[in-house]
Amino acid sequence: MVEFETIKAEEVKFGKNNFLEVARKKAKSEEGENEFIAISRGFFLPDGTKRFKKSLAIPDDDAIKDFVSKNVKEL
Length: 75
Prior knowledge:
Layout (H helix, E strand, L loop, with lengths): L2 E12 L3 E12 L2 E13 L5 E10 L2 H13 L1
Antiparallel strand pairs: 1-2, 2-3, 3-4
């Protein structure tokens, strides 16, 4: 069984009730732990509860984070 822990998250709201979240997370299992970066899109329910639609996880590797950051800014 894998347990996920959110270490830090930043969120930006857009549109009527949508948000984009960038978070550092940790996956814990019997085999060990693994940190990664998750980029998630979601929306808010009328009661304010968050619902996630889609998510992308990237390794916590400086070269990959630089690649994603650079190319998002250039697009």
